[in-house]
Amino acid sequence: MRIANSVRRSFYLRLIYALCLCGATWTHLQVALIHGLGWDYGGAAPLTQIYWTSLLFIDPLTVLLLLLSPRAGLILCVAVIFTDVVHNSWFALHYPIRLDLYVSQIAFLLFVAFTVRTAWRGAASRAAAPRAAD
Protein backbone atom coordinates (compact mmCIF):
# COMPACT_ATOMS: atom_id res chain seq x y z
CA MET A 1 0.00 0.00 0.00
CA ARG A 2 2.88 2.37 0.79
CA ILE A 3 4.39 1.85 -2.66
CA ALA A 4 1.02 2.49 -4.30
CA ASN A 5 0.72 5.80 -2.41
CA SER A 6 4.23 6.79 -3.46
CA VAL A 7 3.45 6.00 -7.10
CA ARG A 8 0.18 7.91 -6.88
CA ARG A 9 1.82 11.00 -5.33
CA SER A 10 4.51 10.92 -8.01
CA PHE A 11 1.93 10.71 -10.77
CA TYR A 12 -0.10 13.63 -9.41
CA LEU A 13 2.99 15.79 -8.95
CA ARG A 14 4.15 14.99 -12.48
CA LEU A 15 0.65 15.81 -13.73
CA ILE A 16 0.83 19.22 -12.02
CA TYR A 17 4.27 19.83 -13.54
CA ALA A 18 2.90 18.81 -16.95
CA LEU A 19 -0.07 21.17 -16.67
CA CYS A 20 2.22 24.07 -15.76
CA LEU A 21 4.44 23.26 -18.73
CA CYS A 22 1.38 23.12 -20.98
CA GLY A 23 0.65 26.68 -19.87
CA ALA A 24 4.21 27.67 -20.74
CA THR A 25 3.85 25.96 -24.11
CA TRP A 26 0.70 27.97 -24.77
CA THR A 27 2.61 31.19 -24.03
CA HIS A 28 5.43 30.24 -26.42
CA LEU A 29 2.94 29.12 -29.06
CA GLN A 30 1.12 32.45 -28.94
CA VAL A 31 4.42 34.27 -29.50
CA ALA A 32 5.27 32.00 -32.44
CA LEU A 33 1.82 32.38 -34.01
CA ILE A 34 1.93 36.17 -33.72
CA HIS A 35 5.58 36.81 -34.59
CA GLY A 36 6.84 33.62 -36.24
CA LEU A 37 9.63 31.28 -35.19
CA GLY A 38 12.34 33.68 -36.34
CA TRP A 39 11.25 36.62 -34.19
CA ASP A 40 14.08 38.48 -32.48
CA TYR A 41 12.01 39.21 -29.33
CA GLY A 42 12.39 42.93 -29.81
CA GLY A 43 16.15 42.84 -30.36
CA ALA A 44 17.12 40.27 -27.72
CA ALA A 45 20.51 38.59 -27.92
CA PRO A 46 20.70 35.69 -30.40
CA LEU A 47 21.14 33.07 -27.66
CA THR A 48 18.07 34.44 -25.87
CA GLN A 49 16.10 34.20 -29.10
CA ILE A 50 17.21 30.60 -29.60
CA TYR A 51 16.52 29.65 -25.98
CA TRP A 52 13.03 31.15 -25.84
CA THR A 53 12.03 29.74 -29.23
CA SER A 54 13.39 26.30 -28.30
CA LEU A 55 11.05 26.21 -25.29
CA LEU A 56 8.15 25.93 -27.73
CA PHE A 57 9.46 22.42 -28.46
CA ILE A 58 11.22 21.51 -25.20
CA ASP A 59 8.25 22.23 -22.91
CA PRO A 60 5.84 19.82 -24.66
CA LEU A 61 8.62 17.22 -24.94
CA THR A 62 9.03 17.50 -21.18
CA VAL A 63 5.27 17.01 -20.72
CA LEU A 64 5.40 13.80 -22.77
CA LEU A 65 8.41 12.51 -20.87
CA LEU A 66 6.84 13.29 -17.50
CA LEU A 67 3.97 11.00 -18.44
CA LEU A 68 5.74 8.33 -20.50
CA SER A 69 9.26 8.20 -19.04
CA PRO A 70 8.91 9.75 -15.59
CA ARG A 71 12.51 9.98 -14.46
CA ALA A 72 13.73 11.42 -17.76
CA GLY A 73 10.81 13.85 -17.62
CA LEU A 74 11.67 14.90 -14.08
CA ILE A 75 15.29 15.53 -15.02
CA LEU A 76 14.27 17.62 -18.02
CA CYS A 77 11.59 19.45 -16.01
CA VAL A 78 14.12 20.52 -13.37
CA ALA A 79 16.58 21.56 -16.08
CA VAL A 80 13.97 23.56 -17.99
CA ILE A 81 12.55 25.52 -15.07
CA PHE A 82 15.98 26.10 -13.49
CA THR A 83 17.52 27.42 -16.72
CA ASP A 84 14.40 29.44 -17.47
CA VAL A 85 14.50 31.24 -14.12
CA VAL A 86 18.28 31.77 -14.27
CA HIS A 87 18.08 33.09 -17.83
CA ASN A 88 15.09 35.32 -17.14
CA SER A 89 16.70 36.65 -13.96
CA TRP A 90 19.73 37.66 -16.00
CA PHE A 91 17.47 39.11 -18.69
CA ALA A 92 15.49 41.11 -16.09
CA LEU A 93 18.69 42.84 -14.99
CA HIS A 94 19.05 44.33 -18.46
CA TYR A 95 15.53 44.63 -19.90
CA PRO A 96 11.97 45.05 -18.64
CA ILE A 97 10.03 41.80 -18.36
CA ARG A 98 6.46 40.79 -17.54
CA LEU A 99 6.55 40.50 -13.77
CA ASP A 100 3.52 38.19 -13.60
CA LEU A 101 5.18 35.59 -15.84
CA TYR A 102 8.51 35.91 -14.06
CA VAL A 103 6.96 35.46 -10.60
CA SER A 104 4.97 32.45 -11.81
CA GLN A 105 8.20 30.87 -13.08
CA ILE A 106 9.87 31.41 -9.71
CA ALA A 107 6.84 29.93 -7.93
CA PHE A 108 6.94 26.89 -10.24
CA LEU A 109 10.68 26.48 -9.65
CA LEU A 110 10.13 26.53 -5.88
CA PHE A 111 7.25 24.06 -6.13
CA VAL A 112 9.35 21.69 -8.24
CA ALA A 113 12.36 22.09 -5.94
CA PHE A 114 10.31 21.19 -2.87
CA THR A 115 8.40 18.28 -4.43
CA VAL A 116 10.69 16.68 -7.02
CA ARG A 117 12.18 14.27 -4.49
CA THR A 118 8.73 12.84 -3.77
CA ALA A 119 7.99 12.68 -7.49
CA TRP A 120 11.31 10.90 -8.12
CA ARG A 121 10.79 8.28 -5.41
CA GLY A 122 7.46 7.18 -6.82
CA ALA A 123 8.50 7.29 -10.46
CA ALA A 124 9.33 3.99 -12.09
CA SER A 125 11.53 3.75 -15.15
CA ARG A 126 8.30 3.24 -17.12
CA ALA A 127 5.19 5.35 -16.70
CA ALA A 128 4.02 5.20 -13.10
CA ALA A 129 0.32 5.91 -12.97
CA PRO A 130 -2.16 4.95 -10.29
CA ARG A 131 -4.28 1.95 -11.15
CA ALA A 132 -8.04 2.06 -10.76
CA ALA A 133 -7.89 -0.78 -8.22
CA ASP A 134 -5.52 1.11 -5.89
Radius of gyration: 16 Å
- Which residues sit in consecutive blocks of at least 5 with pLDDT less than 50? 125-129
What portion of residues is helical?
A: over 70%
Mean pLDDT: 91
Q: Helix/strand/pairing class, anyone? A: mainly alpha
Task: Explain how this protein is built.
It is a single chain. The chain is mainly alpha-helical. The protein has one domain (2-122). It contains four helices and no strands. The chain has helices at residues 2-35, 46-68, 70-94, 99-122. Helix 1 runs antiparallel to helix 2. The longest helix has 34 residues, at 2-35. It is elongated. The relative contact order is 0.18. Residues 125-129 have low confidence and may be disordered.
Topology of this protein?
Layout: H1 2-35, H2 46-68, H3 70-94, H4 99-122
Helix pairs in contact: 1-2, 1-4, 2-3, 3-4
Task: Summarize this structure briefly.
Helices cover 79% and strands 0% of the residues. The chain is mainly α. It has one domain.
